[in-house]
## 1
Amino acid sequence: MKVSFIGLGIMGLPMARHLQKAGKLTKVYNRTRSKAGVFEGTDVQVANSPKEAAETADLVITMVSDSSDSEDVILGPEGVIHGAQPGAIIVDMSSINPEVSKQIGRRLGEKGIDFLDAPVSGGEQGAIAGALAIMVGGNITAFQKVEPILKVFGKSVTHLGPLGMGGYAKLANQIIVGIEMQAMAEAFTLAKEAGLDFEALYEAIRYGLAGSHVLDQKIRNLIDGNFNPGFKIELHEKDLRNTLLAAKTLGISLPFTEQVRQMMHEMIEAGEGGLDHSGLYKRMGDSRE
Amino acid sequence: MKVSFIGLGIMGLPMARHLQKAGKLTKVYNRTRSKAGVFEGTDVQVANSPKEAAETADLVITMVSDSSDSEDVILGPEGVIHGAQPGAIIVDMSSINPEVSKQIGRRLGEKGIDFLDAPVSGGEQGAIAGALAIMVGGNITAFQKVEPILKVFGKSVTHLGPLGMGGYAKLANQIIVGIEMQAMAEAFTLAKEAGLDFEALYEAIRYGLAGSHVLDQKIRNLIDGNFNPGFKIELHEKDLRNTLLAAKTLGISLPFTEQVRQMMHEMIEAGEGGLDHSGLYKRMGDSRE
């Protein structure tokens, strides 16, 4: 199976390197060509366009930033759709609006090309370690064909249903994590003002119903007042923006999701979009002063 | 050490029974005397007032509903304060506004009586099993004297600092749990409308940052659409009301806590206060129809 990889950013580059090491990578493409420099002079060919990357490929993986980027590299004038052969499989691992994934899938389907949406969680560290959690939506037969490839950098690869379900699972995940960051922020703001010791409080509540991975992984940030990322607020804000676009299409209202997005947006405007998402705690203090 | 127990409700009765079985209970009092019937004809004396329960006691434990009840049984005309001897210790295990606990403590202190606030988590099941998590604030010497008694029904007994810190820890806990219920509600409302399978989604996200005890313990309610308590919305609403009263005293704003309290209040008004707090998910559906 000939595999091409498009999008060599913070996430994409380590993922492509894992495929290269496993001897499964044929071509790469990146808009800024210099980022593909690590592949020059190797067996991996650096393509000049997504179209060229898709020619001769059985599988094209895309890992870009947002819905419009996925549309551009797949459906644009120099896009994958103009190079891929009928029977090829395209897997978009970007975190985008799942309703856009469905539209892309329809266009590719007209040409006999399979399309899966397969966003990941685990962040840059997960990509480097080859230990991503991959949530996949789309045709089950296509999924089974590409599953061994995805396992090269995936700790878990879960098929969740038809096209779009990978994206919806990712958005559901980001809703929970985003709102929990604010839950932790409010609880520890009360605790701080009351004079409670954070470590003692954490030990008192962590084994009960309030216990969570957010608390376990982020309590240290609150104790130290250090909000280096981690997962950046500006990326989480993008995911929640896509969540709200999808929710609008589905006709539902998500009040806390909307408000967390607004809080994150305000932090971006204030130049704090590069902080870890646990930085919502910092915002509670800033708005108090 | 002679121990009296005041407040034989859903929580208090099983706690008092554990003390009785351990041979550590001298007197009980309950406003509705019939609830003390189980102690008639035993070695445990049924007192006619909180004052009478406190006379001769080294330790008086109170477990009532809300701030005004604690004030009434401790400071009221027939209250504990009129019976307790200097050197006695009063432990209030009710979940109340910690600022009220501080006021009660000042009044008792003037009489040379020690006061600890020691709310619990673990609910009715925890009380019956003798496996409560007990969060204690107040004088450390008094704490050390009563710790062996609290361990009769406590799985963990944690001293968190001066008077009020037990209550603040409990409120911080209830903030996190309440907001997480809404986080889960929004994520699974999106999932439902998108057509995602709840079990598959749960398996895909539970090991990542979105994993929590709320999700582990309440996902079954969402799958089954069964919101039998568990922990009732009307009790959680009371805790959040106390949280907001305390937050006001401290001069801080807790926006999501305020909104969850409002949502729970609306459910109580609609006759759904007896549902489990995971029933916030049901409200998302009701407001959509």
Note: The CA atoms of residues 30 and 82 of chain B lie 17 Å apart.
## 2
Amino acid sequence: MRKLKSVIRAQQFDKRTVERIFTTAARMESSPPSKLLDGKIMASLFYEPSTRTRLSFEAAMKRLGGEVISTENAKEFSSKAKGESLEDSIRVISGYADVIVLRYYKEGGAERAAAFSEGVPIINAGDGIGQHPTQALLDLFTIKKKFGRIEGLEIAMVGDLVNGRTVRSLSYFLAKHYPKNTIHFVSPEATRMRDDIKSYLDKYKVKWFETKDFREILSRLDVLYQTRVQKERFSKSEIFDQVERESKKLSIRKSTLQYMKPEAIIMHPLPRLGEISYAVDKDPRAHYFQQARNGLYVRMALLKMILDEY
Amino acid sequence: MRKLKSVIRAQQFDKRTVERIFTTAARMESSPPSKLLDGKIMASLFYEPSTRTRLSFEAAMKRLGGEVISTENAKEFSSKAKGESLEDSIRVISGYADVIVLRYYKEGGAERAAAFSEGVPIINAGDGIGQHPTQALLDLFTIKKKFGRIEGLEIAMVGDLVNGRTVRSLSYFLAKHYPKNTIHFVSPEATRMRDDIKSYLDKYKVKWFETKDFREILSRLDVLYQTRVQKERFSKSEIFDQVERESKKLSIRKSTLQYMKPEAIIMHPLPRLGEISYAVDKDPRAHYFQQARNGLYVRMALLKMILDEY
Amino acid sequence: MRKLKSVIRAQQFDKRTVERIFTTAARMESSPPSKLLDGKIMASLFYEPSTRTRLSFEAAMKRLGGEVISTENAKEFSSKAKGESLEDSIRVISGYADVIVLRYYKEGGAERAAAFSEGVPIINAGDGIGQHPTQALLDLFTIKKKFGRIEGLEIAMVGDLVNGRTVRSLSYFLAKHYPKNTIHFVSPEATRMRDDIKSYLDKYKVKWFETKDFREILSRLDVLYQTRVQKERFSKSEIFDQVERESKKLSIRKSTLQYMKPEAIIMHPLPRLGEISYAVDKDPRAHYFQQARNGLYVRMALLKMILDEY
């Protein structure tokens, strides 16, 4: 009866575990064990609001019969007046809960938490521009469900690649476990994928390309992973304005669809702004809402594997 | 095994359904089925805080054995940085929950939500100056419980009738299903009931009167439905000041009670400010706290009829 | 089958009840009855955020199988626009819940609430500079667990004694039920313990001393109860700055430990700032995280004794 420990980083899993997460997630969808985590308590500890992610985790826990204690106001712990360190907060909360889902505003939060949680597993629900590993898992699960495999695919990541946690985590996963795909980074100049990821891909011999436009590659893509420009992470508004202008060319409209393969899928971590127009939603290739729902099954799988067994 | 669909508007129900809601609510009070909704999840999606309404719905769900995921911070979805449309948020949340209770800040929110919730029922918990149908149902249920009937009654609605969602929804219900009552609109000049409601009453041949003072009618009333002046909805403070002055005459004090029938009831959607003085609370005609509690039973009934059957 | 009523003030309990709370809390730790409060609902009504306290109560309720409805936003009830009195809010919420945990921003809130909750028990989770009786209970429980008795001990309370709710409540308890200890108040001049507590101790013939430095007494102490300077409660920043300077001498560092008895314990209600350095955490005398966890058991015990029996 092995149990999964903390979920901190995309790179932590071996391939067998990743595959196990996917088969477990598939079972969570087809036959959810509704009393499995009866009596267990999950703490949602969010240092910044991320209502969608929080509700997804909490629904996952409750669908398995578990209970939740929850705050989106955890920054109060470390407010000027109270000034508590993350480490202290984690040690206290680990006295109340069986698993802690942590959203932190600075890179490295989940790892710091895991070092002080006295054996209570931590699930990283995003730490600043760091990682968001459950998002990457649900992204891969979505691809796996659709194509039955994660190899030989042409995958484009489009948009704000410098600030996008999701595309970073996804790239790590692909490199380490599914290197036999081709990745296209498509972005404005100022939001190009960082070098650390490119080196990581090189290390694992993943074929990758970089471009400012996707017109030439659209017809070859199996997966178009679109992202929004994260305005809140730009310090200079001129750069943001320029990025936004260049991003317009990368938005997906109904007219874009004609260049894509019929069996391709369009993914997006959501929320979207204008980068996928509403007219696209009815096309069978629009896969982003199903992708969000897959997040529920992946999170159920992780909670099962952490609190029960696998 | 019919199920109720979304609850969007007071006008949507036929009379048989309304009566069914009342008999179910009565049963919820006398013998609550505590495990009925075991395994079901309700999402409380509040785009503006309304703690009282939210807690009432959540208590209702939990008294039936169901589970809740919850946010009063849903505006974060549509914040400047994230900018997601209500429709997208609803599509995502409908992947997590079996029913969504929605509080929205603009009229029409619940209807837009229902169009995109992929079959997951929506309950309107208030949309701007639009409707608040569960409040109207609990108001009527309160009258029915007290008098055993909703006809032949003299009902006064008092106070801020232009901004008051509750009196608007209540008027719709009365017109459509219980037209054989007499309605008195009692308000300052600037907060008179809008014409749309008056036309609706006329269409259903409901007798209605309008006045700025209730002294003449007090002794005839069966129901005095008092409301507060919704300061937060006035854009000009001069008008608010004038309304507040005129409202003073419409407040209910201990001395007001002597003019009322012994079997009359005083209702109020709460919160109250000065419009009912505390000295009135001990009078058996003070019915507003029981009215609030009736909300629990009505919401339990709706959740049962939506998620179970009726 | 007696039940505990509201928990408002440290002074309300007779000694038998206090001891009963401790034996029940010990049982909650060793063999928690996980379905005991199935079907019961606790309302967390927090007029100011206190995430740690709230999560502790909610975890306690859920570990007993009970359900929770919750807000940290209760001030919305009494916001300028809505302006509802605490009494009205309590009367409404008491219609939804079986027990109410109340955090209020002004002294006396819990007592006012209990007068209007129509038989629904209130648990005071802190009211301004008033009391925080469950904290005092968990503090005493921690001492009892460690020493097997609460007498013949030398107990120092250190830091901001004028604003510290916890040290006030603890002093009341000690005076009334466990007077055979010696208390040392150690604080900067401006944050000395108030006279009301000192008179109370005198009334019960408790030996107490006051000092600005703990060097002389360190070697005699069984319990060193450290507190943080509550910056947010100082209106003048000069006084705060002075207090902070003087507090530095009272902080506990690794070098402090050599002067303490090996079997002594260091307690702190948390959060801590600099008043206990992190290097102290690994010393077996560091007892503050276990103290926080004891809060869970004490709150489980209180909920059991209120909603079930004792």
Note: The interface with chain A takes residues 39, 41, 43, 67, 69, 71, 73-74, 76-77, 80-84, 87-89, 91-93, 95-97 of chain B (CB under 8 Å).
